[in-house]
TrEMBL record:
Residues 15-325 form the Enoyl reductase (ER) domain. One of its GO terms (molecular function) is acryloyl-CoA reductase (NADPH) activity. It comes from the Bacteria. CDD domains: MDR_yhdh. SUPFAM superfamilies: GroES-like (SSF50129), NAD(P)-binding Rossmann-fold domains (SSF51735). It holds the Pfam family ADH_N. This is Putative quinone oxidoreductase, YhdH/YhfP family. NCBIfam families: oxido_YhdH. SMART domains: PKS_ER.
Length: 328
């Protein structure tokens, strides 16, 4: 094809614009694999890029979208051939490299993971970067030594994409999950995913004490700032918190007390430049440890032309669970 549909972000007099347009194939960036994109998804970072609320996009014009699933059309990479089903998340797509909200993408073959057996391309994007990040967090907690016998685990931003998948996975693995949310109306949804307890996020929004009463053995945090500081102060001796988001801010108004008095660990989770082997491991675990029925129930599908509208909604806290984007 000479041109294809894409959500293009351009610089404007004030900020940026994002709109569905025709993009010329000749403008695609260098890469050794060309993929026909079938499905993408909407993550918090996509919302930031689409609205221009944060400097996510580093070059213009940019095709938005940080992850896709699709079929290889052309490849000069030794690992991939035409017809292969692949998944790609991160690596700067939608930031420095033309992204996923398009009918075609050209990327480095080293960025790709084979679509796990048992998952459809739509399933993979129902998981997306958010679910992939949640699983990286679970793997980090397991590597630290946590198990269901260690005690309860807390998940913040529980009704969001990362939170929803984290709750579903952790509960299936046998953990007692405490879900923190600012949306009381989502209590039934969170319990259906597997949350054993629901707490109001306001419990974690006051300035954190250096050390507070022990409440959990570990957690997955997508919020950051004061929330993360409170999680750390309430973590049991030898426990750990996996930090993977910054919805409330980049700051961490905490102290060294949890680390040196309780041996608590803060585990940093990066999904963008994560090496390929942990990527493969995370996707295999998602294929086996995520209840596909629950995945279906937390997923809402939108067409490509509605992506800018939903980008604003996800920043406004109006999105529950996962959004999949049908490309073709």
């Amino acid at each position: 094809m000479a041109t294809f549909k894409a959500i293009r972000i351009d610089k404007a007099d004030k900020g940026t614009t994002a709109a569905l347009t025709q993009f010329d194939e000749a403008e695609l960036m260098d890469g050794d694999v060309t993929v026909r994109v079938e499905w993408s998804t909407l993550n918090y970072k996509d919302g930031l890029a689409l609205t221009g609320k944060a400097p996510v996009v580093r070059r213009f014009p940019m095709i938005a979208g940080i992850d896709f699933a699709g079929t290889v059309e052309q490849s000069s990479h030794p690992q991939w051939k035409a017809g292969d089903k692949v998944v790609c998340t991160g690596w700067g797509m939608g930031e420095t490299h033309l992204g996923a909200y398009a009918e075609m993408a050209r990327v480095k073959g080293d960025w790709l993971v084979a679509l796990p057996q048992g998952l459809s391309a739509r399933d993979a994007m129902a998981i997306g970067t958010a679910g992939f990040t949640a699983m990286l967090s679970v793997l980090a907690l397991e590597k630290h030594g946590l198990s269901p016998k260690s005690g309860p685990v807390v998940v913040t931003g529980a009704a969001g994409g990362v939170g929803s998948v984290a709750i579903a996975v952790l509960s299936k693995l046998g953990y007692h999950v405490i879900a923190s949310t600012g949306r009381a109306s989502e209590a039934d949804y969170l319990k259906h995913l597997g949350a054993a307890e629901i707490i109001d996020r306001n419990e974690l929004s006051a300035p954190a004490k250096p050390i507070a009463k022990e409440r959990w053995a570990g957690g997955v945090d997508s919020v950051g700032s004061t929330t993360l500081a409170n999680l750390l102060s309430m973590t049991k001796y030898g426990g750990a918190i996996a930090a993977c988001g910054l919805a409330a801010g980049l700051d961490l108004p905490s102290s060294v007390a949890p680390f040196i008095l309780r041996g608590v660990c803060l585990l940093g989770i990066d999904s963008v430049m994560c090496p390929i082997e942990p990527r493969k491991a995370a996707w295999q675990r998602l294929a086996s440890d995520l209840d596909r029925t629950k995945l279906t129930e937390i997923t809402h599908e939108i067409p490509l032309d509605e992506v800018p509208e939903w980008g604003a909604k996800i920043l406004a806290g109006q999105v529950r669970g996962r959004i999949v984007v049908k490309i073709v």
